Amino acid sequence: MTSRRETLRALGSIAALQLFGTLGVEELVAVGRRAHTLAELRRSGTSGAAPRVLTPVQYEMVVQAAERILPRTDTPGATDAAVADFIDIMLADWYSAAERERFTTGLSELDARARNFASGGGFVQSTERQQTALLDTLDRELHTRRQSGVAGANDHWFAMLKHLTVWGYYTSRPGIVEELRVELIPGRYDGNAKY
């Protein structure tokens, strides 16, 4: 996404999800920032470093999948924004057990498809090109589901992954400051300013 308006539109689309339907864009940003704060505390060791929902293998799959969805270019990528930590916290604190199960079952499906697609290796062992191709395939399948009007298309685990990746990225400090170029504290301090 290249503009703040497009980003807010993407965050607004998250509000269309049943779980977040009552939240406006401002609340979605606030929830995202709180989740990032918790992720930072977890990484610093203040509240334990292990993922709460994802296994270590699932966590690494999410790290790599999110980075393929929002790769590092001349701006930070999903890994720089700690999107996997964000996703684990959101799964733990905001999603129901059934939704968590759908998501983790989807990761198992992703790994199985990678084994077929990449001649035996799982998703994590696949090359970046193979991972991207597999995620593109899932994206096309999701698009087809949405276009055909299949009930619950947005409840698909890959839709959850995409939404959480975008949400996690654009509510992170790297996403806000380096990608969107939004000053967290508007203006600047100039101790020598004329009055």
Task: Give the structure's gist in a few sentences.
With 195 residues, this protein is mostly helical. It is 60% helix and 0% strand. Helix 3 crosses helix 4 (83-93).
Structural Rg: 18 Å
Tell me the domain tally.
1
Q: What is the strand content? A: under 5%
Task: Report helical residue fraction.
Answer: 55-70%
**Pairing-aware structural class of the strands and helices?**
mainly alpha
Provide the succession of SSEs: HHHHHHHH
How many strand elements? 0
Shape: globular
Measured distance between first and last alpha carbons: 40 Å
State the assembly state of the protein chains. single chain
Mean pLDDT: 78
Low-confidence runs of at least 5 consecutive residues: 1-5, 14-19
Major sheet summary line:
none
Number of helices: 8
Give the key terms.
mainly alpha, single chain, 60% helix
Any overview of this molecule?
- With 195 residues, the protein is mostly helical.
- The protein has one domain (4-179).
- It has helices spanning 4-14, 25-43, 56-69, 83-93, 97-117, 128-147, 157-170, 173-179.
- The longest helix has 21 residues, at 97-117.
- It is globular.
- The model is unreliable at 1-5 and 14-19 (pLDDT under 50).
Topology, element by element:
Layout: H1 4-14, H2 25-43, H3 56-69, H4 83-93, H5 97-117, H6 128-147, H7 157-170, H8 173-179
